Amino acid sequence: MIDRREVGLAATVGLLLLTGIAVDVFATEVGRRPPPPPSGARFAERASFCPPSLAGSTAFVVATAAGREEVSLGIEPARPERVVVEAGGVFVQELPDRAPAQVVGYGSAVKSGVVLRSQEPVAGEAGAQCAESASSRWFFAGGASTLEVDERLLIYNPFPDEAVVRVTFVTPVGEDRKGKLADVPVPAESVTIIKVNEFVHLERTLGVRIDTKRGRVVAWRALFDRPEEGSPGVQMTLGAPSDSDTWFFPEGTVAETARQRISLLNPNEEEATVTVSLSGNGKIVQADELVEIPVAAGTARGVTLQQVLGARALRAGAVSAVVQSTNGVGIIAERSMRYGDGRIRGSTAELGATRSSRAWMLPPATLRPLVDDVVVMNPGSRDAVVALTIRGQDRRPIQPASLQDETLAPGGRLRIDVTRWTRLRTAMVTLTSTNPVVAERFSYSDVSRDAGTVMGYALE
User: Fold this and answer.
1) In this structure, are residues 114 and 130 in contact, taking their beta carbons and an 8 Å threshold?
2) What CA–CA distance (Å, rounded) separates 317 from 435?
3) Structure pTM?
4) How far apart are CA 251 and CA 157, in angstroms?
5) Which residue in 247, 197, 267 sits closest to 379, CA to CA?
6) How far apart are the first and last CA of the chain?
7) Percent above pLDDT 90 for the chain
8) Are 323 and 249 in contact (CB under 8 A)?
């Protein structure tokens, strides 16, 4: 088990500041049913959007009120009638085959996440955020098109008019545009799935840019990972609708049995200069190779921390990362992990958070976790005191005494084990802090023998 608390003082971060299995999966208490919600474009504009399942997989939506009040919830098309979810409760809905979902709360804002449970082509689980808005642009920094990887793009149009998108692949030497992907139709209220390996072959570093030529869409990437060494796994990631100067990654491990890769994409017309700062285990890991990394305009590149750190990787252990463009050119940053120590296995990927907050909502990273942790990093200059609340399906929210008043030093990292309260259960976790922090969730499911990560939603 990874240590519960890992706190490191990060001088570089200070510089940044200056610049179908169990009943509980399917069942929930349903109370009174208000009249059916409105449908169509008006409904879609107010909804959050969740991705569908793929062939050989099942998708589950997990939703709760953003605050502490009761919420009337609609999930189209899986459950068009509203259900009432008690204050602090969680509702789980299996999605119909290949159907996306629009989730809306009446009388209260909602937060929702999705967990993809796959049997084919790779067995595994992956959690992802549902999108809170559609966009005319989406980016993915990580990805590949090798024999080990089966990557799919899921592009969802929730609106009543057809959308048209252009998909551009981004490699270390520049953009790669395919004629067949210049005008991709996305029918109204439908999902278009693109199998990346049918268009690009043998690229180990492959970013993606999606631009709409008409309408707005939402985009996720699913990746089925079958490495020659290590265990297989499933990844699911909501894309980034825009670039940023700064990306935060609370979770991460640099060890012999866990390989961490930071992927960078520069969608702009000027070169970006990027620095990766790591903190963990009470110390700083700042290799010269991680300072002022050039990322040329319109290119993508990957940085495998084990290769960069060499022998120092074995001493790094659990780390948080801050990825910053130091010359003001916006980038996209994504972290991927491959585990294979026999205890924690599988594959994960997640885009970073672009800001800190004093309140976070953390969706599940797997449905029935055997290991479940909330990982918090403090990029600020003052101590942060954090507290957690567990929201489950079959009970009111709880605030265990051992999950309250955890102190996190400036530049520090804290790993909070919540498995005792969430083991084999589907739950949401809320985090509050006296000062802004960044929070992410890590889980491992013994059902699918796969790890999952999902970034939290900033609530303020």
Assistant:
1) yes
2) 26
3) 0.89
4) 31
5) 247
6) 32
7) 73
8) yes
